[in-house]
Design a protein that fits this description.
The complex is a heterodimer of chains A (about 575) and B (about 140). Chain A has about 575 residues and is α/β, with parallel strands linked by helices. Chain A is built from 21 helices and 18 strands. By secondary structure, chain B is an alpha/beta fold. The chains are: A alpha/beta (about 575), B alpha/beta (about 140).
């Protein structure tokens, strides 16, 4: 028997616990609709007549719901409840009746909760199992576990769609016939259905099956048609069948996905970061106000020459840019920005009074993604910006995350470290880099197999997620190596934090069949500004990690403070 | 393996009480439940067998932090874990200095994390007890 291994039989007690948890979850999920209804009623009441006590009660209800929903894994309800809670708290603090847009947001949170609460429990379970671990900062991860059913009698179409949609974080299940779809729907409810119109059964068989599809459901499933036909009869039939979208083959994948995103109502996004570049301060701040009202985080730059710096520090997800600026026009600025590899794909939306289509097209070809004419309608601005920022986020997510653990991948965590060093230098901050390496990981894989090894990695990621804040970052640096950037604490505090995590991790009982084993990790720490360069930090943390291994593993070691820095006070 | 101890669970939401009880009893601990700070404090004073306290932060009569302060005021250094819905509370300096050993966020990772967190807190406490001679106990 290896050190740390115990043999236990899958016994009645564990089974009993599992059943108990399942039963509890069922009970919990069953009472959700009533809870949400209570919240909705309370919200309506305070909308009609603002009442501080009523608002306080509602906040309490939302806070409680968010906590328990989170614990039971109902993350959509948790997110919606928390959002609504924070909106309400803001109004209570200001002592004012919530303005129109806040009310709208709160009402849509309510709707989101209702919808999430109406989904049958077995789907919710699947979501829990499938959702990757979202980490702070780079948020806006698709709530994957969103399942889409694709139905087409041509297997190549189905395969192609499944592949492409799958890239964007959806789980795809494919069927070839409307009957198969109806059968499948008895067991599970997808977030959306993408379906052909014509099948061997009939030219309009897809549309005809929709009645059967939506029958007896509390919440409608969004349906998107994808058809080779684009004639009027086909389109009208689709409309009459109460579908949500119609695309013709060959399909414009971007448009399909945009529509799919909207229809599957992905989690309300956390604040998009928008950089506004406009030499007219009044206009810039007016656009800023519009975007902030919609819940976005903004930064304004009125001098194009300062944009590059702002990009490095603020790291926006979209740039809203005036075209006509005296020192440098928007089109040139876009080109300069795109020279930098890191910003080649950042969406740029141009604003101008230009209504001439030709000049707009030239602008797009110079690196813009959209062109809005002033004066801007707030709703138009917000919609345009949100769609593009969201798409950017989704794409970025897939380029930057390790698929197993949901943490940042090697390239990105190194990149983040660069950013942190730059930021810390500029703002005089302190932060610590922690390098973790799982002890005897090769043995785990050899003894219990790679699936068990993967589970160990996932457990560690889970733990890290519990312990890290919005300002911390974690990435998978190598096979069994992780890098964590702890923003704020110095070496001492970081050592305590990492030791706690080390201890917690050592207590996790990993299971393999009827065997149990435990795993530990070693950790090396190095802090900025003791080490000032990215490479120095990595080397120092690595050396400390090596020291930890040499000293027996399962411990945390701090890199020594370079002696040049110690100055007598 | 450390002796299994009795854990006091404090939360005003009965569902939270139940799920925490299920998870901890599944790990072999005995549990006692309380639904508010006052009840929890009384239960704590009455039962010397309680080895750890897990408390919700946001409760109607007093916060989890206030409860822990009260318990500390009685001279007890029992390990205490705070549950919060608010991610930002992590590493809150006040919480740590007021005697909370750990802070857990209410999301789905809690189901996996609670066992190790509790075991870790208990082990740390045992180690501390062994290292410190009784008259120097903090």
């Amino acid at each position: 028997m290896r050190p740390g291994e115990r043999i236990s039989v899958i016994n009645e007690k564990e089974e009993a616990t599992r059943l108990r948890l399942e039963e509890l979850r069922r009970k919990y999920v069953a009472q959700i609709p009533a809870k949400v209804q209570q919240i909705e009623d309370a919200l309506r009441a305070i909308h009609q007549k603002w009442d501080a006590e009523g608002a306080d009660n509602l906040v309490r209800m939302l806070h409680t719901l968010a906590g328990s929903a989170g614990t039971f894994g109902l993350s959509e309800i948790r997110t919606a409840a928390r959002l609504m809670e924070s909106e309400l708290r803001a109004s209570i603090t200001q002592g004012t009746v919530p303005p129109g847009d806040v009310r709208v947001r709160m009402t849509s949170c309510c709707a989101a909760m209702k919808e999430a609460g109406a989904v049958p429990d077995d789907i919710t379970q699947d979501r829990m199992a499938l959702s990757p671990l979202p980490l702070p900062r780079e948020t806006g991860l698709p709530s994957s576990g969103d399942t889409v059913f694709v139905v087409d009698d041509d297997p190549r179409v189905v395969e192609n769609l499944a592949l492409q949609i799958g890239h964007y974080g959806y789980n795809v299940e494919s069927y070839n016939r409307p009957d198969d779809l109806v059968e499948a729907l008895k067991k599970a409810t997808p977030s959306a259905i993408i379906m052909d119109l014509g099948f061997p059964e009939g030219r309009l068989a897809g549309a005809e099956s929709l009645d059967e599809v939506q029958k007896g459901r509390e919440g409608r499933i969004p349906v998107l048609f994808l058809s080779g036909r684009s004639d009027f009869e086909a389109r009208l039939t689709a409309v009459r069948a109460n579908s949500d979208a119609y695309f013709t083959k060959p399909v414009d994948m971007n448009k399909l996905l945009e529509r799919l995103d909207v229809l599957t109502k992905r989690q309300p996004p956390l604040s998009y970061r928008i950089l506004i570049v406009d030499d007219e301060p009044e206009l810039a701040f007016s656009h800023e106000a519009m975007l902030q009202q919609a819940g976005m985080t903004t930064s304004v730059v009125t001098d194009p020459f300062e944009v590059m710096e702002s990009l490095a520090v603020f790291r926006p997800e979209l740039i809203l840019m005036d075209v006509y600026m005296p020192r440098c026009n928007g089109l040139e600025l876009a080109k300069v920005i795109r020279q930098n590899e890191a910003f080649v794909d950042i969406p740029i939306v141009f604003l101008s009074s230009e209504t001439d289509i030709d000049r707009q097209m030239i602008a797009m070809s110079r690196g813009g993604d959209d062109f809005l004419s002033k004066p801007i309608q707030p709703s138009h601005l917000i919609l345009s910006v949100s769609l593009r920022a969201e798409r950017y986020r989704v794409l970025r997510t897939f380029m930057i995350r390790d698929s197993l653990t949901g943490l940042l991948n090697h390239t990105r965590i190194k990149e983040q470290l660069d950013h942190e060093v730059a930021r810390a230098q500029r703002q005089g901050l302190v932060f610590t880099l922690a390098m973790i390496d799982i002890d005897h990981f090769k043995s785990v894989n050899d003894t219990y197999g790679h699936p068990a090894g993967d589970q160990v990695l996932k457990s560690l990621s889970c733990l890290l997620k519990q312990r890290l804040r919005k300002t911390d970052l974690a990435g998978r640096y190598g096979g069994e190596e992780f890098a964590i950037i702890l923003g704020g604490p110095d070496c001492n505090t970081s050592e305590t934090i990492m030791n706690d995590i080390r201890s917690n991790f050592s207590h996790i009982r990993h299971q393999y069949g009827d065997r149990e084993f435990t795993v530990t990790f070693s950790c090396g720490l190095a802090s900025f500004p003791h080490y000032e360069q990215c490479s120095e930090l990595i080397n120092a943390a690595d050396r400390a990690l090596y020291e930890a291994k040499r000293s027996g593993r399962n411990q945390v070691v701090c890199a020594p403070i370079p002696s040049q820095i110690s100055v007598a006070k | 393996m450390a002796e299994k101890r009795k854990i006091l669970i404090v939360d005003d939401d009965p569902f939270m009480q139940e799920i925490l009880a299920a998870l901890l009893e599944g790990e072999g601990y005995a549990v006692a439940l309380a639904e508010n700070g006052a009840g929890a404090f009384n239960a704590f004073c009455a039962d010397p067998g309680l080895g750890l306290v897990i408390t919700d932060m946001n409760m109607p009569d007093m916060t989890g932090l206030e409860l822990i302060k009260k318990i500390r005021g009685r001279g007890s250094d029992v390990p205490a874990i705070i549950l919060t819905g608010d991610v930002e509370m992590l590493h809150d300096v006040d919480a740590q200095s007021d005697g909370a050993c750990d802070i857990l966020v209410k999301d789905e990772t809690i189901q996996e994390a609670i066992g190790p967190f509790v075991a870790g807190a208990l082990e740390k406490y045992e180690l501390k007890k062994r290292k410190t001679p009784p008259d120097e106990a903090r």
